[in-house]
TrEMBL record:
Full protein name: Ferrous iron transport protein B
Included range, full protein: 1 to 268 of 677
Main function: Probable transporter of a GTP-driven Fe(2+) uptake system.
Superkingdom of the source species: Bacteria
Family: Belongs to the TRAFAC class TrmE-Era-EngA-EngB-Septin-like GTPase superfamily. FeoB GTPase (TC 9.A.8) family.
Length: 268
């Protein structure tokens, strides 16, 4: 059985370093923005049946840049068997914003918590089990640059791909947004079951690509739900959803990350 596994993460999280380690290729590693706008493909050195894709680095799956559109189209349309979401462990808070959106796509996912060497050098402590529990997916600590943790990462990624294991749906929205998401999901009965959640959320965020892909009657009904939800979200459901994601991330980091230099848990 052949599996396709996509690497998705923020710019500079170490995607290309990981890609090179896994495939033995020598793609340019560096922090020029846009260096990986084209997705790159290779095969896993230890198992030629596994295709690895290095997606462009993004902070979100909104349709606001070429990188975001390439990454998200690959994830939601071509549907890899699994996504390895590479997270820079030295700035978990910022990186998890993309993570939450990847999880919303319901694609089987494992988190590769990269740069653990830097975390350890700083004396910070990350509770991997807690982080994994709160996010509802497996988290594997790695050092992409030295290869540490990559064997385990690939074992987990292949397991998740084989089992087609969908991530848990996280409880991060308030009643207003949750109920609007459910109502829009019901309207999307033509869409595949696993696509309804992320599409409903994107429609509530005012995503024009998703909204314009709807049939006219569904679009009209969905717009009514959005209007109603806006009334209870200070007129801006997109901002409200962003805010709720940040609140969830903030709580998660507070529970799972202990920074040495501040002497107390991270709060912002
Ligand atoms: P990309 O933008 O996600 O493709 O990230 P790159 O692979 O280009 O890496 C960005 C920077 O992080 C480079 O300087 C890498 O050498 C560095 N890097 C990648 N992985 C690690 C790691 O595990 N530890 C440390 N300390 N640095 C890393
Ligand atoms: K670095
Ligand atoms: Mg890169």
């Amino acid at each position: 059985m052949n599996y396709s596994i996509a690497l998705a993460g923020n710019p500079n999280s170490g995607k290309t370093t990981l890609f090179n380690e896994l495939t033995g290729s020598k793609q340019h590693v560096g922090n020029w923005p846009g260096v990986t706008v084209d997705k790159k493909e290779g095969t896993y050195r230890k198992n030629k049946e596994i295709t690895i894709l290095d997606l462009p680095g993004t902070y979100s799956l909104s349709p606001y840049s070429a990188e975001e559109i390439v990454a998200r189209d690959y994830i939601v349309k071509e549907k890899p068997h699994a996504v390895i979401n590479i997270v820079d462990a030295t700035s978990i808070e910022r990186n998890l914003y993309l993570t939450l959106q990847i999880l919303e796509t319901q694609i089987p996912t494992v988190i590769a918590l990269n740069m653990m060497d830097e975390v350890e050098a700083r004396g910070d402590i990350i509770d991997i089990n807690k982080l994994s529990k709160l996010l509802g997916v497996k988290v594997v600590p790695i050092v992409a640059r030295s290869g540490r943790g990559l064997k385990e990462l690939m074992e987990v990624a292949v397991d998740v791909a084989k089992a087609a294991k969908k991530p848990e749906v996280l409880d991060l929205f308030d009643d207003n947004i949750s109920s609007a998401v459910s109502k829009i999901e019901e309207l999307l009965d033509d869409a595949k079951a696993e696509e309804r959640l992320w599409k409903a959320i994107k429609i509530l965020e005012g995503d024009e690509i998703v909204t314009n892909s709807l049939s006219e009657p569904v679009k009209v009904s969905a717009e009514k739900v959005v209007k109603e939800a806006e009334k209870h979200a200070d007129g801006d459901t997109e901002a409200k959803i962003a805010d709720l994601r940040y609140q969830f991330i903030s709580k998660t980091v507070k529970v799972a990350v202990k920074k040495k230099n501040t002497g107390h848990v991270e709060t912002t």
